[in-house]
């Protein structure tokens, strides 16, 4: 059983990583047409360094993802607190309404947003992208943080209150530290949702302000160069570092008690 | 040290009354158990005293202060939860120091008090561990240390021992009683376990459907139950029903049963409660009361023999007999049971 499990795990990882590794390798290949034999070269990285459009789009993506992550995590965590610890009218309806956006195809959400933003005068551009991404990420945050909440017993806060904590102090001294891994995970999720986002960004970007996926898409239409591989590699290594740092603190997929 | 008073407290959830007009007092330094079936309102009463629930009406007094409108964190209570509720991200010492810190006690003084509290629960030197590194019983002790280190006005415990296995539970009962006696804390203890209630408490309060049906010393509640419910809930009991006649009770089969209880007026119906261990298998004819019955089941439990019987009228009875000479009666044997008037208690239905 054990060796079979390991085999599946390895097979899954091979499947996931092979295309990525090939993509990364091709960024270091001299040939513009991805021809073999492989000749090592940093030519595409030099080209990338001079490709201001691609770099700006990359920077935009990261900034938007960061802001989205912070704002969506703050708002989503507050929503989770309200949903998990308070009772109020219409709570179960609100709770229910948070989930469908995750399942609604992004194309539909994006179209709806475009129409609504156009109609309401919000328009397109960076601010529109931010609003769209935050709205998109909040349900994920609520889901992740809400799941974290469920693992924290309410009587911990009660114990703190019996010892003299106000509800606010109890939340910050007991609940928040325990919720910390979930909040970090949610922030990461929000970051990824934003960084990954193509459809909605495509609708809300302007010619002067695009994100990396949108820019890559328009570059591909003009012609694929290994510069794309290069920037993808940079981005990949960046996000991998963030995720691995996170994984050091909270082991995802490992629910065993750490004794 | 302080007493706790509850005055006309009532609580209703939706349309279900959970507590109905409870008035009682918990004396300074006393240990009171709240005992009652599931859903009788024990937890609700405890949480109203703690301040987690606001009663619909009535007053809660701790010492001379009316705390009805004071929130939990202003009441200076010590509380122990069934699930221990230790803070998993803090060490044992930090857990115990939590309430001290809220009271502005820090540094060396806090350390001294934490050490003393951990010694009191016999866990000296455990301060640097985390809750996960302790056994269930040890965690329970830490929870107790954390609750008492703040010198609370009242110690509230909601079935704190029910998650422990039997042996550990008995050990913790002894510890709890010792610590309660040493600290002199007014203690209110919710339990399902009648034996636990009897052995630990100065007073036992029996709750039924949101009312305290009887409160008193364990012996009084056990020996002189006021209602059929308390007689049945605390221990086992046999019940005989008859009509009052000449200061005694005439049963349907014609026999006359004597009781030292004050009986209602002649002619009225009354229920008598007799503990199964107070009855004996007839040896002579000197007993004040007797009844004939047939054995239906014999339960051999080593030191004690437990017989289920049935009278000619089909009334079920129970008898507990010490296994003194090793003779065990058989199913179907017809015997005569005897007991004294003093152990025949008139109870309200
Ligand atoms: N928040 C609530 N909303 C509605 N009903 C409640 C609530 N809390 C308690 N009740 C009801 O009040 C009654 C008393 O509950 P309580 O928890 O006080 O009982 P208990 O004596 O502690 O029972 P147990 O021995 O099972 O712990 C129960 O019928 C319960 O269903
Ligand atoms: Mg309860």
CATH class wording of the largest domain in chain A = Mainly Alpha
| CATH overall fold name of the largest domain in chain B | Rossmann fold
Name the biggest interface. Answer: A-B, 20 and 25 residues
Rg of chain A, Å, rounded: 22 Å
Rounded mean pLDDT of chain A is 83
Compressed to H and E, one letter per element, the order of chain A equals: HHHHHHHHHHHH
Work out the oligomeric state of the chains in this entry. heterodimer
Strand arrangement within the widest β-sheet of chain B reads: 6-7-8-3-9-10
Going by CATH, the homologous superfamily of the largest domain in chain A would be MetI-like
- Model regions low in confidence, pLDDT < 50 over at least 5 residues of chain B: none
Question: What's the total number of strands of chain A?
Answer: 0
Distance between the termini of chain A: 25 Å
Molecular shape of chain A: globular
Bound molecules: adenosine-5'-triphosphate, magnesium ion
How many individual domains of chain B? 2
Domain ABC transmembrane type-1 (chain A): 58-246
Family (chain A): Belongs to the binding-protein-dependent transport system permease family. CysTW subfamily.
Main location (chain A): membrane
Transmembrane segments (chain A): 7-28, 62-84, 96-119, 125-149, 170-193, 230-250
What do you see in this structure?
The complex is a heterodimer of chains A (259) and B (349). Chain A folds into two domains: 1-41, no CATH class; 52-249, MetI-like (MetI-like fold, Orthogonal Bundle), CATH 1.10.3720. In chain A, 76% of the residues lie in helices and 0% in strands. Chain A has helices spanning 2-26, 43-50, 52-85, 91-97, 100-103, 106-120, 126-150, 154-162, 167-196, 199-204, 212-222, 227-249. The radius of gyration of chain A is 22 Å and the shape is globular. Chain B has 349 residues and is an alpha+beta fold. Chain B has two domains: 4-227, Rossmann fold, CATH 3.40.50.300; 236-347, Nucleic acid-binding proteins (OB fold (Dihydrolipoamide Acetyltransferase, E2P)). Chain B is 24% helix and 34% strand. Chain B is built from eight helices and 20 strands. In chain B, the strands form four sheets. Chain B has a six-stranded mixed β-sheet, with helices on both faces. Chain B has a five-stranded antiparallel β-sheet with strand order 13-12-11-14-20, with no helix packed on it. Chain B starts with a strand and ends with a strand. The model of chain B has no long low-confidence stretch (mean pLDDT 91). The interface between A and B is medium-sized, with 20 and 25 residues. Magnesium ion binds next to helix 1 of chain B.
């Amino acid at each position: 059983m054990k060796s079979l499990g390991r085999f599946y795990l390895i097979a899954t990882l091979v499947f996931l990583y092979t295309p990525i590794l090939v993509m990364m390798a091709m960024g270091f290949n001299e040939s513009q047409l991805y021809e073999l034999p492989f000749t090592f070269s940093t030519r595409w990285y030099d080209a990338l360094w001079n490709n201001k459009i691609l770099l700006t789009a990359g920077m935009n993506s990261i900034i938007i993802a960061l802001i989205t992550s912070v704002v969506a995590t703050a708002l989503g965590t507050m929503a989770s607190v309200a949903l998990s610890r308070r009772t109020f009218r219409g709570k179960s309806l609100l709770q229910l309404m948070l989930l469908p956006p995750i399942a609604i195809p992004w194309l539909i959400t994006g179209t709806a947003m475009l129409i609504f933003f156009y109609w309401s005068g919000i328009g397109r551009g960076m601010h529109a992208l931010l609003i769209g991404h935050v709205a998109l990420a909040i349900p994920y945050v609520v889901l992740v943080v809400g799941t974290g909440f469920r693992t924290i017993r309410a009587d911990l806060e009660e114990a703190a209150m019996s010892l003299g904590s106000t509800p606010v102090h109890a939340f910050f001294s007991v609940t928040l530290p325990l919720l910390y891994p979930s909040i970090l995970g949610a922030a990461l999720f929000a970051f990824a949702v934003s960084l990954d986002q193509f459809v909605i960004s495509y609708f809300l970007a302007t010619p002067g302000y695009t994100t990396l996926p949108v820019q890559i898409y328009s570059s591909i239409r003009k012609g694929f160069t290994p510069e794309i591989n290069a920037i993808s590699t940079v981005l990949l290594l960046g996000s991998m570092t963030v995720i691995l740092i996170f994984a050091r603190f909270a082991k995802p997929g490992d629910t065993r008690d750490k004794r | 040290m302080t007493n706790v008073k509850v005055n006309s407290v009532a609580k209703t959830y939706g349309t279900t009354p959970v507590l109905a007009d409870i008035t009682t007092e918990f004396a300074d330094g006393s240990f009171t158990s709240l005992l009652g079936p599931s859903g009788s309102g024990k937890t609700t009463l405890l949480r109203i005293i703690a301040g987690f629930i606001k009663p619909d009406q009535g007053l809660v007094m701790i010492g001379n202060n009316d705390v009805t409108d004071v929130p939990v964190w202003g009441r200076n209570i010590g509380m122990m939860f069934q699930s221990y509720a230790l803070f998993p991200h803090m060490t044992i010492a930090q857990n115990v120091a939590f309430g001290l810190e809220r009271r502005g006690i820090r540094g060396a003084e806090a350390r001294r008090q934490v050490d003393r509290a951990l010694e009191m629960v016999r866990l000296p030197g455990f301060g640097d561990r985390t809750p996960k590194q302790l056994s269930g019983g040890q965690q329970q002790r830490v929870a107790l240390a954390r609750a008492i280190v703040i010198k609370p006005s009242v110690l509230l415990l909601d079935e704190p021992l029910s998650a422990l296995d039997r042996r550990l539970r008995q050990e913790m009962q002894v510890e709890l009683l010792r610590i309660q006696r040493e600290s002199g804390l007014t203690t209110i203890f919710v339990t399902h376990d009648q034996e636990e209630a009897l052995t630990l408490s100065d007073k036992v309060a029996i709750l039924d459907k949101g009312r305290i049906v009887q409160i008193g010393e364990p012996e009084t509640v056990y020996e002189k139950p006021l209602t059929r419910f308390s007689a049945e809930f605390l221990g086992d009991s046999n019940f005989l029903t008859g009509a009052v006649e000449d200061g005694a009770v005439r049963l349907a089969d014609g026999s006359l049963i004597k009781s030292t209880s004050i009986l209602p007026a002649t002619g009225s119906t009354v229920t008598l409660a007799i503990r199964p261990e107070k009855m004996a298998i007839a040896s002579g004819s000197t007993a004040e009361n007797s009844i004939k019955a047939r054995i239906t089941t014999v339960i051999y439990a080593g030191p004690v023999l437990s017989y289920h019987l049935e009278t000619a009228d089909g009334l079920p009875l129970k008898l507990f007999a010490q296994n003194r000479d090793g003779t065990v009666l058989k199913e179907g044997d017809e015997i005569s049971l005897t007991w004294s008037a003093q152990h025949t208690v008139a109870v309200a239905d």
